[in-house]
Amino acid sequence: MEPAHSETGDCRVEPPASHDRLLQAYPIHPEVFDRLYEDWTTIEGFQRTRGVLKLMAKVIYRLWQDDNKDLFIMPGSLPLHDGSTRNELTYYLPAGWDAVIERDIDGDRAETTELENKEPRFGQIGAARRVARPPFLGLLRRSQPPCRPPALPEQLGRQGARCDTVPGY
Hey, what's the torsion of the CAs at 123, 63, 30, 140, to 10 degrees? Predict the structure, then answer.
């Protein structure tokens, strides 16, 4: 819901214009499609329809294997720890991105994994990895910074996830 201000200055909540987009794209969050169709298709070799379908098939299959219960497949949900999914994305990027993902974003040796192992509240919901993945998906954005900082509650987006388990929320 987006706040809107009336002439008197009262704040009221109106449904966002993107409500229809959420319904049409369900169970995949429209931001995933936006980044893939608007950004990733600018990479030479990444095919607009075939590339997106191939990637999303790998994403959905891995999430199904992991018995993922999220209500949406969000940018923070992409299983970059999965070799097949990661390879599909890094194949089109310059050399070195696989190591970046493995060490910084999503892998057994990633700093995000270390943080989640140290702090059980983060680990229970994969909070560090869920916040680190969206900027990678948005790295090709040319007109804006790589990715706007995600709202933590939105990126956690898990059934039963509680924001009060994260300090500051």
Answer: 70
The CA distance from 55 to 86, in Å, is 9
CA 31 to chain CA centroid, nearest Å: 8
Beta strand 11-14 with 2-5: parallel, antiparallel or unpaired? antiparallel
Domain-by-domain residue ranges, the chain? 17-157
Three-state secondary structure of 28-61: ECHHHHHHHHHHHHHCCCCCHHHHHHHHHHHHHH
d(CA 40, CA 110): 24
Peptide bond into 15 cis (omega under 30): no
Based on the number of CB atoms within 10 Å of its own CB, is 149 exposed (0-12), middle (13-18) or buried (19 or more)?
A: exposed
Per the confidence metrics, is the pTM higher than 0.85?
Answer: no
Distance CA 157, CA 151 (A): 10
What tens digit of pLDDT does each residue of 114-141 get?
Answer: 999 999 999 999 999 999 999 999 887 6
Which whole-number Å values give the CA distances from 38 to 28, 48, 49, 140, in the listed order? 16, 9, 12, 9
Looking at the DSSP bridge assignments, the partners of residue 2 are 14
